[in-house]
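CHAIN AND CONFORMATION:
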Amino acid sequence: MNYSPLRAITVLFAFALITACGGGGGGSSSGGGSPAGPTSVPSPTSTKVQISGTAAKGIIVGGIVNIHPVSSGAVDFSTTLATTTTDANGAYAIELSGYDGSPIYVNITADNSTTMRCDLAQGCDSAAFGEDLAISEIAGASDATTAFSLAALVPGFSGTTLSSNVSPLTNTAAAFGLAALADNSATSSASMNSIINNANGSVALRFGVLGSLLEIPIIDLTDPAEVAAADDDDLQYNLLATASVAALQANVPDTNIIEALTQFADQYAVNDGLADTEEFDSAAVTLEEILNAAAALVDTLEAEDSSGALDLGALQTEFSAKAGQASKGSTSPTSPIPSTGNASELILVKSMVADIRDSGTALDIAGEGSFADKLETASNTFDAHAGEVMEALDLTLQAISAATDAWLESDEQLSTYAYQGLTVDISTQNGVTTFNHSSNIAIENASGKPTDVAVALNAVLNELERNVIDSQSETGSLESATISINLAVSGTASSSLVDIDIKEGTFQATIESALSEVYGQQSQSNEGNLSETDRSVEEIDITGFELDLLISLAEANGSVQDPLTFTGDFQLSVNNSATASDYNDTLLFDQEQQFVGWVDTWIESATIGEMSMRMGGIFNTASGDSLSASLAINVEGGELSLVCEGEDSYSSQNQTSTNSEICGGETESAYINLDFSLGFDMDITGLEAGSITLTGSRTGLDDGVVEISTNYGDVLLDFQYDSLASADKSEMLTIKNQNGVVLTLIETESEGGNSSSLAGAITVKGTEYATISDELGFIAISYTDGSNESL
């Protein structure tokens, strides 16, 4: 496979670490992450404004849209500036006459005809996912139509059109903003606008959302076609919005949807934000719980897609990795406040350029290789060396699993059982059966040489069920079995390079197998030669395999210059995978029935269904560096089936033997789908503490997309590198930030392939504010106000 995530990372950071290109050219630019110059405040002139948007928790049909003024730091509910209702898609459009540029409060309420499309994985009262539920019929609400409220707090504006979508997250930002208005006794339009902008931006930052919270499109999560067509960032926002309600209901099971909306918004406002995780279970919702709920919701979306074409694996992998990262985070609520306030769009563009430069400078100051080392530390933990140890553990688990099966089937009390050269000791005391294996296992390393791995594994049987249908005859046998097993495991595995300590864990699996054997099938050729064949056909289906371990991993002292240790959790899940084999062992005889040789033929195949791996914890080096990281990988085999066909033969007449094997692999149309996400914390001199998430997807046999998101302080930067080939061999880098600014760079290779050129632009909401080129020998940015600088 030609596509390499490391290559993409290299190209990505070649763009990001562009400070080597020098300082600014002529003209001016904003410095740092804060905008320069005065902010823009709407003038208090009366005008006519068109406001439109969509309301969703899921889609609200027939919702009553009320526009109220915000005056002296509070909503004036006694005054309604305009009202309308949402249509069948949850959309609304309303004209506001006599608007004076002050902040407004968009509030969605309900009457007896208002319905909500259920987008919760667990369903909504009597409505299943995708069904409509009348607001008036929400269980547990004494007066649901009066209690229901979904809002957005909108800063003053000077245009004639405004987009204001309404969702659980805008509702949260509205509560957060109103609390801040009250705390700061804000009364002037300028101060209220700044606080409201900061509240909306703060919630967006806390959830890692790119763009304006009020303008991100609402997506009907119950419509697979709409989900498939959605931008990934927009879809992520909508999933998180719904997951916030799901997470609260999971924490407080008797809470209805209306209460969940209100309680989550109030919790965020009262606590000044959201904690990453919590030490003890409570009613309070954490970012970790919301991310896990979003990952679970992805499962529902794919399950509800009757076409089976919806593939959200990359997004689910990212949620899983971020949840793992959050689980190691802070238990104190937080919500970062943006520094851009009421800045104009051009100032936002210049601020983004400054943020990119600051990031590159800080990474450079941190020392050559410092950032790359952190990335390599986390991504290489389960490399070939640890992989050898994990392979030995896997073989031991297989032996213990086979021993439990034999122990259950045996009429006698087994004390030992041998499986593929590994001996498992079996003991039962006080009704508890334990399986132990301890030995050195030779594992072939990357260079083809054996590596000794010392394994000592203990497994306590929690549950074992085995259903077998067996039939025998003189010419063969037929056996089918279903096995379900659950073991509590602990132990160690060590090579000369890596030590793994399983502190505690569980192993459970459900496996279905079928074995058909036919003995002594005889046939005669036209020449009178005889043959006798034994045939064995076996199929094994893995319908469920789960491994959940709390482990510590350490590189052995002396194996590397700065040994690494890891402590955390490791989870592996395999579903809907299968193997099949067809073996034919044939003895050959001449016409006088004298042995003349043998031929063995075989066909082996493996079908990869779904596999997911997640690990998260703390990495430490002997020199004192520490890193919290989380890795998630999802693999789907799709239509791919790996097949090997082989033949071995021997001739006694000339004392010769032959062997051959041909294996098929991936093709352009059938390949393994791979999504991965790596998240880790970032503590670099010159930047506020934050995090980085690396996400990648394989989109073809040799193609892929890699995305890096950085989050520090009030800055979100999302780098996406697209390696898809094109006729002109161009490659594209897109950088987005928290303010909806989009920088696009396209590198085009020359016809001879000896050089390349860069060109691009920076836009906000589709409006271009700068162009980028390297025609002068360096990357130059030209702004629409006539200023310019180098990147």
